């Protein structure tokens, strides 16, 4: 696979072009749906929370503690980024749709940014850039509203701000 160097542009027909004017065919993959859920605490969607109305288990209280989460480690631990990118390149992919949710950036409240997550994301993107040959589409992702209302994206505090009591 030929590695594309330099910036890409587009023509009047919507084709992406490399620095020599050749059409670039993007072959992409989504990385990764798991980015919609916190890495910590780890609460996979297939594990039920609580035992019922009478007994609240730890999972229930952890799930609804939307302020104290971390997305650091999504989509991969830093030590694994090179392996996964090279594996994707070996399969012919040259484009990655990289999901970032609002909750990952600002879960603790309006204007309270998770700098550890931001720095982690920058490190992942630097590793991918240094490997080369992969375009990144940053997807500021949101489905429905929030994982607390059956979707993903918006932080818990936005539900309270809208007058809901999750």
From TrEMBL:
Biological process according to GO: ergosteryl 3-beta-D-glucoside catabolic process
GO MF assignments: steryl-beta-glucosidase activity
Gene3D superfamilies to which the protein is assigned, alphabetical: Glycosidases
Stored PANTHER family: ERGOSTERYL-BETA-GLUCOSIDASE, PTHR31308
Listed name of the protein: Glycoside hydrolase family 5 domain-containing protein
Organism: Wickerhamomyces pijperi
């Amino acid at each position: 696979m030929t590695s594309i160097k330099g910036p890409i542009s587009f023509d009047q027909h919507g084709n992406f072009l490399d620095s020599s004017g050749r059409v670039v065919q993007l072959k992409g993959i989504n990385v990764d749906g798991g980015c919609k859920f916190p890495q910590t605490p780890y609460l996979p969607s297939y594990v039920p929370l609580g035992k019922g109305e009478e007994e609240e288990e730890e999972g229930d209280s952890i799930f609804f503690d939307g302020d104290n989460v971390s997305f650091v480690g999504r989509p991969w631990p830093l030590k694994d980024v090179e392996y996964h990118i090279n594996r994707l390149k070996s399969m012919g992919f040259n484009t990655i749709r990289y999901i970032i949710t609002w909750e990952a950036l600002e879960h603790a409240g309006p204007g309270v940014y998770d700098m550890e997550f931001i720095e982690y994301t920058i490190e992942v993107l630097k590793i991918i850039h240094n490997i080369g040959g992969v375009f990144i589409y940053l997807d500021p992702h949101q489905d429905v509203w929030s994982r607390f209302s059956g979707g993903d994206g918006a932080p818990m505090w936005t539900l309270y701000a809208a007058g809901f009591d999750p």
